[in-house]
Design a protein that fits this description.
single chain, 373 residues, alpha+beta, TIM Barrel, Immunoglobulin-like, 3 domains, four-stranded parallel sheet, four-stranded antiparallel sheet, 7 helices, 15% helix
């Protein structure tokens, strides 16, 4: 069979078929059919689509349910329910009739959104396929805008096919998060790919957790973005604060099937829209000189007794020099740093203070410096 040949050549390839939406109509002779009265793929085009999925010969099926909800010959709702009951051991990606939007009163602006919401409530439906691209591009009745604004605002990983081969990937390392004028810059060290196709890293999933939200990558609302494998930096431009918020980031590695590595260690940063003078426990007065050629100094204030870390970071957010890691009491301080061994470019001074005796997140301030020799 075709499926056997595909699996033998490239076992990671997903093989599926998009048949006519009605397998067989329910009758005395065929009690397993759907409660419909339309053209049957089984007898009209000799397509036993129910058997294909139940035997596991295909990885997914995309039945073309090109009718509206309530259509008396072939009701979308009835067929959707029938497929979820008869293809439960394989993925279902419903074929949606984007080409019919605006065709008549039954295909008004609300019909396909209603179908998509129903899909998301139904068991065993992993997604949709829209026929066809040209109709999406036309954006009839604003349907494409509706998809973008109401259904597909956030990224998603590919649904896992448990019967396909998989691989164990290593977690990304050296995850850093640094606030800058663009937002929060997240960086990490690339995961080493293996020699087999499925052990090759094809991308990274970036997760974001607000304030005291537990680190849980199983919840889709925590997925921020998916980036390609040649990237080790992502800027979260939507990080903002109504007063003060903590953002915690974590990264996982993905292969081509979106098998996911264990989660990396986390990196956290405080974002605030308060003036820095209003922050509870620290303030940076100046970093001078800036630009700097050989040596510079950081002048800062500690407003509450705290454990203080002062670091010199490179442009990727990686720590180049640990300048300070100690407890300090209330007062004004300065710390010198040496950049004589550094190349010309952009670097950052990062000051972090964790107030002692308070159950509050650490406060982090960052200043950009430019090394010019």
């Amino acid at each position: 069979m075709v499926a056997d040949s595909v699996k033998a050549a490239k076992p990671w390839v997903k093989f599926g078929i998009s048949p006519f939406g009605i397998w067989q109509n329910k009758s005395t002779a065929q009690p397993l059919g759907s409660d419909t009265r339309g053209l049957e793929s089984y007898s009209a085009i000799y397509c036993d689509s129910r058997k294909w999925v139940q035997e596991g010969w295909i990885d997914y099926i995309a039945p073309q349910l090109y009718w509206y909800i309530g259509f008396n010959v072939a009701d979308y709702a009835i067929l959707q329910s029938w497929w979820t009951q008869n293809a439960a051991n394989r993925h279902i990606y419903i074929g949606q009739a984007a080409y019919r939007i605006g065709a008549d009163v039954n295909w008004n602006a609300a019909e396909l959104p209603r179908q998509l919401r129903s899909n998301r409530l139904a068991p065993n439906i992993q997604g949709s396929i829209f026929f066809r691209t040209g109709n999406l591009n036309l954006n009839t009745l604003g349907f494409r805008d509706s998809l973008m604004q109401n259904f597909y605002q956030k990224p998603a990983l590919l649904p896992n096919m448990s019967w396909k081969p998989s691989a164990n990937l290593s977690a990304p390392t050296n995850v850093n998060a640094v606030a800058n004028t663009e937002g929060v810059r997240i960086s990490w060290t690339r995961t080493t790919s293996g020699s087999t196709e499925l052990s090759k890293v094809r991308g990274y999933a970036i997760y974001r957790f607000l304030d005291n939200t537990p680190v849980d990558i199983s919840k889709s609302e925590n997925l921020l973005f998916v980036v390609p494998t040649d990237t080790t930096v992502f800027v979260d431009k939507n990080a903002n604060a109504n007063g003060r918020r903590q953002y915690t980031y974590a990264v996982t590695a993905l292969n081509r099937l979106h098998d996911e590595s264990p989660v990396s260690s986390t990196a956290a940063v405080i974002i605030t829209n308060l003036k820095e003078s209003e922050l509870q426990n620290i303030d940076i007065q100046s970093v001078t000189p800036n630009p700097v050629a050989t040596q510079g100094s950081v002048f800062y204030t500690i407003k509450e007794t705290a454990h203080v870390q002062l670091q010199l970071l490179d442009v990727t957010g990686k720590t180049h020099t640990q300048l300070l890691n100690t407890q300090q009491s209330v007062g004004e301080y300065s710390s010198d740093f040496d950049v004589s061994a550094l190349s010309n470019g952009v670097y950052f001074i990062k000051l972090t203070a964790q107030s002692l005796g308070k159950n509050a997140p650490a406060v982090t301030l960052v200043r950009k410096i430019i090394v010019v020799k």
